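The protein record reproduced below.
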Amino acid sequence: MHAHSSTSHLPPTTGHQTHRTAWSTLRSLLPYVWEYRWRVALALLLLVAAKLANVGVPLLMKSIVDDLDPRHAVLLVPTALLAAYGALRFSTTLFAELRDVVFIRVTQRAIRRVALGVFLHLHSLSLRFHLDRQTGGMTRDIERGTRGISTLLSYLIFSILPVILEFVLVAAVLLAKFDWRFLAITLGAVVAYIAFTFFVSEWRTEIRKRANELDSRASTRAIDSLLNYETVKYFGNEAFEAQRYDDSLRRYETAAVKNEASLGLLNVGQSGIIALAVAMLMWLAADGVANGALSLGDLVLVNALLIQLYIPLNFLGMVYREIKQSLADMDRMFTLLGQHLEVQDPPGAPALPAGPATVVFDAVNFHYDPMRQILHHVSFEIAAGARVAVVGHSGSGKSTLARLLYRFYDVTGGAIRVNGLDVRAMTQASLRAAIGIVPQDTVLFNDSIRYNIHYGRTSATEAEVEAAARAAHIHDFIVSLPQGYATTVGERGLKLSGGEKQRVAIARAILKNPRILIFDEATSALDSETERSIQEELSRIAQGRTTLVIAHRLSTIMDADQILVMDAGQIVERGTHRELLAVGGQYAQMWALQQQEEAAPGQSAIQE
């Protein structure tokens, strides 16, 4: 199990657990099937027609053989019977194919709905879940889970039902045409076959689950390593990463070999049961022919019926295995769906009230872990259109303020109010729609520059995108590129410099046109000259907007309406730039230190 994987906390699997999961999974899939109930009904009718045609073939074969028997007076080949035989053979395939065509829409729609449901659910989970998750393993779980839905639906309806129907029809023919011993041997073989398949497959499910777990772990390791390509290179750890990956693959290899060996055991056992039953029945039929009690056609009929029953029965073993494996695969995906929503809208929550936004932090306490408090009774107010800056050493809790205002987490004490309403009482969508953020570490989609700016407001026009880029002083740089706005930025924006990425983030925030702006050390990745040119734009776009600035360089927030100095999760000083310098406390010390660094640029890089 992954030590940190959020999907690894699966309940212990017991027979009862698997049964419960199977039924809850079937119940959850029922609405998707019910939506297309007429299609399902038509598919089932075609299924019955195919099976009737299938069982009709051996009966016609018996008549043909008996009519060709030289002991009978019929000398002409029974042409009509042969034609009917061919028609029935063709009908079996035709009805089966039509059934699949009719049903494919049901399966694909169910997959689409469930996959979308999981995707939306993952986006609704808290930041805490996404910081703990391992993306590679999680995407593999979703991929296998949706594939499991297809397997489950098609096999349940087109394999389990047909086998039951086929057995009932064969049993009826055996009982009508032959004595009770034929039916008894057939029934005994079917019961033994199903029991053997059930017990061995139960054992194999655990092996499969273990293989899945190790497969997800190997995938997670590989993706994690490739995402951190640069770090691996910095430390020359390619061999170490390869060793870790190979270690995961080796464990998966062992589990996969065991999985395949158990499959071989299952197949051999199943074939043994069927072979024994076929031999016994053929001996009974041959004895009947020898005694004159049965015709040659009867021998052919018994053989054909058994072969027809054996084929789907053999398939049933595979179907049962596949259904068990599908449930094991879907178990992990539904575990994701079962993840508790840490941050939820209360029923009937109103939207954020309109108008300029006032933000109030009222005695806010917060911790990620109860053993380690991050914020202690933090209180401050940002009046509508005002600009409040927060400064402090790394780890003082500055960035946590932005995450709480965005409601990535809920406060553990006190309250945050926007326009007088507690953020926990309003809809998350309306709150986040009112806030624009320029983060310290800008993460971009692996798409074009246009796409990344346009993401700020997906309904914006081309002209608005360009206007936002001009405001962020990046338009001239973009048009100088060979592909202009169509230039792709690479995974996580790696093809752009820190400053270029930051300007894209600023353009994106400008395009969103929010009532509340958060600059989370927004210019810390820029050099001094670039920072000064962009700072004027930041000040301009902040005009009339309620702004929270989490600052690194104090020179950028000298004109803030209020500056808060944080230390160890508490506000230790507050006031304007002039007031704080006059006090001569922590802010004055930080200011003096940064002034020295600017005076001696050579030391700046070392101290920062």
About this structure: The chain has three domains: 18-337, 352-434+518-524+546-608, 437-513.
